[in-house]
Amino acid sequence: MRHGKKVNHLGRKTAHRKSMLANMACSLIEHKRINTTVAKAKALKQFVEPLVTKSKEDTTHNRRLVFSKLRNKYAVTELFRDVAVKVADRPGGYTRIIKLGNRLGDNAQMALIELVDYNETYNTEKKSKSTRRSRRGRGGKKANTPAPAPVETQASNEEE
Question: Which residues neighbour 94 within 8 Å (Cβ) at sequence distance 6 or greater?
Answer without folding.
Answer: 48, 49, 52, 53, 87, 115, 116, 117
